[in-house]
Design goal:
alpha/beta; four-stranded antiparallel sheet; 273 residues; 14 strands; 33% helix; seven-stranded mixed sheet
Length: 273
């Protein structure tokens, strides 16, 4: 399929709010970049109606956008040219299948990101992986909420988790997680397409939620319910300026903060139920 690729310029502090509204439009996937977002609209969606909605949103939130035509065959060449391996200290390395093996890390993950979000380059993903380094996942039951390309679910499998559920509202993320789990021989990952309501199970030892702040806030009560007592919740997608508010909400839902990481204006928190 061909796509319209939208370049959306927005301040970091307004990005999560805008993304929540953009999720209501028929964009298939999003990529967070420095200075804003890239959004992908399938060619079969109503272009004029979408841009009318974007123009209306501009009256409430300051952002700029432009679009360009993107053929599917060009997308693969584009990300292959720009996608470089990512190293999270000596703990984990992320590469595509056309890169040379990474011998300097304990865990190597191979992903082909296609149109799904999450290649490990973004600060939020980097921090989530760094926090996972100190988790004891052997034999555990894990939920990856907002799995993107499946990196965190695959790493949980590498770290010995017995059973992993991975869910994402984006269809391309669902498909890409299936693909990447197969590439990495992570056959204990059960991938779901939908919102958190699609996850019928509970009793998780650990939940990984690298997702936007508004969805985290909406989901905290349900995530608390799905965790075992003394279970761990890792969250990111939070701007540093909102950290105190998020901490207070977490305390209200009977979480305690066990660890915090900061990078490029973003925050990741390790919470204990």
């Amino acid at each position: 399929m061909n796509y319209w690729m939208y370049h959306i310029k927005v301040e970091a502090r307004r990005r999560d709010v805008l993304l929540a509204f953009l999720n209501e439009l028929p964009f298939e996937s999003f990529e967070e970049i420095r200075g804003g977002l890239v959004a992908y609209l399938p060619e079969n969606q109503p272009l004029e109606a979408v841009e009318a909605e974007l123009n209306e949103l501009q009256t409430r939130y300051p952002f700029e956008y432009s679009r360009e035509w993107l053929e599917q065959r060009n997308w693969n060449a584009e990300w292959e040219a720009g996608f470089q391996p990512v190293l999270i200290e000596d703990f984990c390395g992320i590469r595509a299948d056309f890169h040379a093996p990474l011998s300097s890390v304990r865990h190597e993950i191979i992903i082909n990101p296609r149109m799904a979000f999450g290649t490990g380059h973004h600060a939020t993903t980097w921090m989530m992986i760094r926090l996972m380094r100190d988790l004891h996942l052997h034999g555990t039951k894990v939920l990856d909420y907002g799995c993107g390309t499946g990196i965190l679910a695959i790493l949980a499998s590498r770290l010995g988790a017995a059973m992993i559920d991975a869910v994402d509202i984006e269809l391309e993320a669902f498909r890409n997680t299936l693909e990447n789990a197969q590439i990495n021989n992570a056959d204990n990952i059960h991938v779901l397409h939908g919102t958190l309501s699609a996850v019928l199970d509970s009793g998780y030892d650990d939940i990984l939620a690298n997702i936007n702040q508004n969805i985290i806030l909406e989901s905290l009560q349900t995530l608390h319910h799905k965790l075992k007592r003394n279970g761990t919740l890792l969250i990111s997608g939070i701007l540093k300026q909102d950290e105190d508010f998020i901490r207070q909400v977490a305390l209200d839902f009977r979480f305690t903060v066990e660890a915090t990481l900061y990078q490029e204006g973003w925050v990741a928190l390790q919470l204990l139920k």
